[in-house]
């Protein structure tokens, strides 16, 4: 059996293939920072993400600034540096609001709830939960509603407001009952009753 090979010099790039430009150093810093964050190498993540943030600021790339700020918020949150996390998340939130990026707004708001819980600012955490609850209600999102109500119950418990925690669980039970998830609904009724008995 004989095989004829094509001369390597006659092989052209595939149609549609792009010449690879040297990597963008700002984007490289950003991606490295994300990898360091995933690997829990927080100091290195902070350095890389800060460098990326500075690069995005110099370019005036608002989306890059929002993404880098958000990731820096994650680093600070993981290190329980809640005040710094708050600053980064608020910056990202402002840009997302300006760009009317609803999905990103919701994601950042959820992180802000964690930050305010870490700062023991329960009223601010509840305020953001109520904003999200309103958004989920407007968008007819029962899963999101349940998720936030569960978060609210935990915040109420942390703040010693057991009555409101029990009410939040009862509301979750009601939502599950509406979807005929009776056993799940009963588990939330039980949580509410346990809280009432402990009060």
TrEMBL record:
Residues 1-27 are annotated as: Disordered. SMART domains: TPR. Keywords: TPR repeat. Residues 18-27 have a biased composition (Basic and acidic residues). Signal peptide: none annotated. TPR repeats lie at residues 66-99. Coiled coil: none annotated. This is Tetratricopeptide (TPR) repeat protein. It comes from Desulfoprunum benzoelyticum.
